[in-house]
């Protein structure tokens, strides 16, 4: 992190977290942030369900909900981006305040509730983005929808022609009863609708499923069975947690999903369990608590083909993506791996 970036973060941390997030996007769009371009090497090049990534470090959904800073984020050091979540109709989300920094824990709690401008303006921005790294969309459902499962397919049908991949998000804790869609029967029906919508697109794209870290072993086994039989192309593990174990911050009791450093161990254990359950038949994406190259490497060795980060940038700045990618390259070289793929799952047993 440069001194200028450190000073900028210190300034942003004086503001309400949601306001600071909006200001960071404005600064990015205004060209006030150094953008190194994607970090590339033969060792970092990754094939993720057919997506050709210059490096496996992705931006998780939620940072750029409305796809307003795509040209800039595509040059920020990431190997791939996920924007959204997008719902069919615009949605205000939950009342403010709805985002808290847990500085002592290097974490955050949010209860946004899928606030976004809706699929139409988001799709227009996706269609207008420049060529470059793969960009995908997190699919969501309107809170007041009569058929939430159908909303996911509807967003994909509208935006799919302008995407490199899509993610089905049934794991946000901030929309009432949304996580109920992770049950075996409900999830099977929902994914069938999404896969049908994909089949109607002008070109096929990978579809990923994003899951919660709070599933029981039996629920995780059911989910793996559905994923393997549904036609999806990968699993993102994991979204935020409802657990508050070990937190020190005064904001620890706020309702919502917890992300950041405290999630690392829990999400990595779920990732390793999924890796065992799916036996290499589906690529996995590791998310939760990554703030260093060592942690990204640990996710890969636990079974992830690629990783995503977001909350760590609240504390480490946007330059974190490039730093993690470069550090990962060095770690792979140190241990004699010629590619990311060679390292996938090589340390899984320690997390089971």
Overall description:
- The chain is α/β, with parallel strands linked by helices.
- Helix content is 36%, strand content 16%.
- The protein has a single domain (3-351), classed as Aldolase class I (TIM Barrel), CATH 3.20.20.
- It has twelve helices and 13 strands.
- An eight-stranded parallel barrel has the order 3-4-7-8-9-10-12-13, surrounded by six helices. Strands 5-6-11 form a three-stranded antiparallel beta sheet, with no helix packed on it.
- Helix 5 (148-159) packs parallel to helix 6 and helix 9 (293-302) crosses helix 11 (320-334).
- It is globular and about 50 Å long.
Backbone structural class:
alpha/beta
Number of strands: 13
Main sheet properties? 8 strands, parallel, barrel
Per the CATH scheme, the topology name is: TIM Barrel
DSSP summary: helix tally: 12
CATH superfamily: Aldolase class I
Strand content: 15-25%
Q: Segments where pLDDT lies below 50 for 5+ residues?
A: none
Distance between the termini: 34 Å
Q: Looking at the structure, what is the overall shape?
A: globular
**Succession of helices and strands:** HHEEEHEEEHEHEHEHEEHEHEHHH
* Helical proportion, percent range: 25-40%
> What's the level 1 CATH class?
Alpha Beta
Question: Spatial order of the strands in the main sheet?
Answer: 3-4-7-8-9-10-12-13
State Rg. Answer: 18 Å
pLDDT averaged residue by residue: 95
Total count of domains? 1
Q: Tell me which CATH architecture applies here.
A: Alpha-Beta Barrel
């Amino acid at each position: 992190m440069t001194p200028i970036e450190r000073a900028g973060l210190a300034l942003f941390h004086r503001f309400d977290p949601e306001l600071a997030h909006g200001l960071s996007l404005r600064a990015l769009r205004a060209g006030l942030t150094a953008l190194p371009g994607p970090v590339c090497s033969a060792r970092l090049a990754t094939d993720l369900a057919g997506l050709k990534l210059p490096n496996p470090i992705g931006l998780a959904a939620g940072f750029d909900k409305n796809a307003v800073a795509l040209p800039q984020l595509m040059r920020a050091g990431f190997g791939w981006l996920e924007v959204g979540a997008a719902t069919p109709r615009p949605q205000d989300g939950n009342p403010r305040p709805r985002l808290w920094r847990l500085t002592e824990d290097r974490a955050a709690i949010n209860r946004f509730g899928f606030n976004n401008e809706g699929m139409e303006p988001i799709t227009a921005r996706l269609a207008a983005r420049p060529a470059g790294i793969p960009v995908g969309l997190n699919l969501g459902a309107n809170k007041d929808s009569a058929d939430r499962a159908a909303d996911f397919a509807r967003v994909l049908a509208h935006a799919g022609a302008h995407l490199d991949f899509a993610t089905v998000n049934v794991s946000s804790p901030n929309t009432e009863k949304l996580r109920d869609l992770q049950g075996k029967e409900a999830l099977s029906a929902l994914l069938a609708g999404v896969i049908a919508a994909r089949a109607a697109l002008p070109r096929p794209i990978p579809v990923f499923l994003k899951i919660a870290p709070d599933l029981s072993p039996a629920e995780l086994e059911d989910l793996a069975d559905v994923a393997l039989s549904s036609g999806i192309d990968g699993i993102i593990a994991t979204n935020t947690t409802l657990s508050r174990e070990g937190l020190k911050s005064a904001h620890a009791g706020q309702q919502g999903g917890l992300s950041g450093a405290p999630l690392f161990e829990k999400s990595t254990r779920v990732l390793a369990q999924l890796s065992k359950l799916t036996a290499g038949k589906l690529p996995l994406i590791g998310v939760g608590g990554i703030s260093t190259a060592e942690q990204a490497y640990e996710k890969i060795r636990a079974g992830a083909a690629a990783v995503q980060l977001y909350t760590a940038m609240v504390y480490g700045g946007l330059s974190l993506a490039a730093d993690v990618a470069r550090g990962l390259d060095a770690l792979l070289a140190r241990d004699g791996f010629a590619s990311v793929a060679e390292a996938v799952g090589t340390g899984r047993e320690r997390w089971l």
